[in-house]
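We emphasize that the prediction below concerns an isolated chain of 124 residues; any contacts that depend on oligomerization or on bound cofactors are therefore not represented. The input was used exactly as deposited, without trimming of termini.
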Amino acid sequence: MEQDQIFLEYVVKALVDNPNDVKIVRTVDEMGVLLTLSVHKDDMGKIIGRSGATAKAIRTILRVVGMKNEARVNLKIEEPEGSDRGFRDADSSSSDTGGYVHAPKARQESPKDKSLDDVLDGIK
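Result of the prediction step, given as a token string:
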């Protein structure tokens, strides 16, 4: 296992109630490293966090780990089977998806846009 995968497994297993259901697939292509994470459906909220804050923090730290190893690391969180979470269409009501509202994705900064100190300061 590579350092980025070891780090992700350690952090995720510490957050969830079902650590035996944590699965990470690591793939490398011309775009960099992609870590695909799947967890038990009951643990999704713990991984995503309020308004995606936990997932964003994990992604930020993974980018730092990637910079240390001169690799671009991205995280994809798989939707678990049987999840009642859904994306809301423009014409559907919030009761159809359990009230989940998805904010537009903000432009992600490249690791080259920030220094390591800036990234670490943003985590605090």
